[in-house]
Amino acid sequence: MNIIVDSKGLACPMPVIKLKKALTQYPDESSVFLLALTDKGGVKDIPAFCQQQQLEWVLQQEQPFIEFKVWRKHNMSLGKEGGGKNG
Amino acid sequence: MDESPSEQLSIIQTKGTLDWAYPVFILASTAAAMDKKVELFFTFYGLNCLLKDTSGLKVSPLGNPGMVMKSPVGPDWLRAVDWNKVLPGLVWTLPGAAKLATWGFKKQMLMEGQVPVEELRELCLELGVSMTACQMTIDLMGYQQSDFIEPISFSGAATYFANTPKTQSLFI
After folding, report:
1. Per-residue pLDDT for chain A (87 aa), expressed as one digit of tens each?
2. Distance from A73 to chain B by nearest Cα, in Å?
3. Which of A10, A30, A76, B105 is geometrically suited to a Cys-Cys bond with A14, CB 3.0 to 4.6 A?
4. ipTM given for this complex
5. Residue A74's domain spans which residues?
6. Cα separation of B46 and B152, whole Å?
């Protein structure tokens, strides 16, 4: 299931917090989070957060806004993307 | 507690102005979102950060030379001016200067996508950040426990040190 997390227009720390809240709200391993943000620091912060939280991520775009696709490492169906594991 | 220091964050907040309240709540909420155990200890003027009534959280360029003070409104050339650099410090002693600076600071923060400090504080609590108000300074400054937001705890330095990791950060 794709979950849109829109934090466009919000500054640090809101994108990370919104992503965390979404992760808590959708604990299902098959959940895929599409995080949209405009906070430039997020380009580094979101990957740092994902790494620390054992999440996989792909930076989908930087313009006109930054978009990350984030999913849990156990989600095998997406394993090949973003250098993730596939079994 | 077996948790390693890297999984914990502890900050001692002794300052009671808006520009000191934000960084602590930003760091605390982020650390909590990253599953760190966060303990904040508020003492002396830092108690201001925990009051239900946040009108005491102000910011002033007076004695605060690092503060960048730009107009959040007006044409671009006007908004580019850092008034804390171009005006003599004496100006900030005038009546209403702190009010104006606080208004400008809040407006600028909201325009930059920052949430109001009360909201950020609430988010911290929601994310499980523990906040403790120093009982000694509450008594010293004549506050009542009912003046503070909930849920927070009230205790002294020994309780705080007993509950927190080896690492403490004093926000200076």
Report:
1. 899 999 999 999 999 999 999 999 999 999 999 999 999 999 999 999 999 999 999 999 999 999 999 999 876 666 545 444 433
2. 16
3. A10
4. 0.85
5. 2-78
6. 14
